[in-house]
Amino acid sequence: MNKNDYRIRLERKEDYSEVENLVRESFWNVYRPGCSEHYVIHVLRDDPAFVKRLDFVMEKNGHIIGQNMFMRTVIDADDGCEISVLTMGPICITPELKRKGYGKALLDYSLENAAKLGFGAALFEGNIMFYGKSGFDYARNFGIRYHDLPEGEDDSFFLCKELIPGYLDSVTGIYRTPQGYYVKDSDVEEFDKRFPAKEKLKLPGQIF
Ligand SMILES: CC(C)(COP(=O)(O)OP(=O)(O)OC[C@H]1O[C@@H](n2cnc3c(N)ncnc32)[C@H](O)[C@@H]1OP(=O)(O)O)[C@@H](O)C(=O)NCCC(=O)NCCS
Known about the structure:
Elements: E1 7-10, H1 16-27, H2 37-44, E2 56-60, E3 63-77, E4 82-93, H3 102-116, E5 121-125, H4 128-131, E6 137-138, E7 144-146, E8 158-162, E9 173-175, H5 185-192
Parallel strand pairs: 7-9
Antiparallel strand pairs: 1-2, 2-3, 3-4, 3-9, 5-8, 6-8
Bound molecules: coenzyme A.
Residues 26-27, 30, 89, 91-93, 98-104, 126-127, 129-130, 133 line the site of coenzyme A.
């Protein structure tokens, strides 16, 4: 990868099916047998919390090789306030170009643009090994807790990055996952019929 062999731009309507296929290929059998993320983005684009100005695709040689998107959500602060934040994802890079730096380039570009739009922080579930390189830390270090997680449970999947330094300085509270991310398995199954058949495999490392 070099800085000139890709372009990042906003997603257009005519990209939708190509992007959904890319997301399906990228997530298939990674976290569970099959995946739901291609349906999730299909649904989220119509959600009022979806941030159209942060809906990015990455192109190389005229093909879309990556995508990333954001949703508005809130932290329910312990003092009763709602603190506006972003959540992110799905984000993906086509399987054949993984681990070449494209994911980090797309992530950093997206976060820079989110900061330019004035968003204060981004929080989501992810792997610190990847997101840590772009400045994410465990959300617990910012005083933010994950909803429905019993005291003492491992919360190292829950990450945060301030886009405005100090934005969460005086905040403690619970992050709210936007409802749009919760999709029904039966709806995923139905949507998946629009794509070429693919084998679902139970593999080591899957978390669901
Ligand atoms: C996660 C994903 C977007 C990362 O994109 P990528 O282009 O492969 O990542 P990069 O090459 O930019 O990685 C930068 C660094 O992050 C770290 N990293 C990336 N993916 C990692 C992984 N799965 N595990 C551990 N570290 C990882 C590595 O240190 C990497 O540098 P290195 O390859 O020199 O060691 C991509 O692998 C992907 O689409 N995965 C499937 C879908 C997915 O899991 N999406 C994220 C859901 S939270």
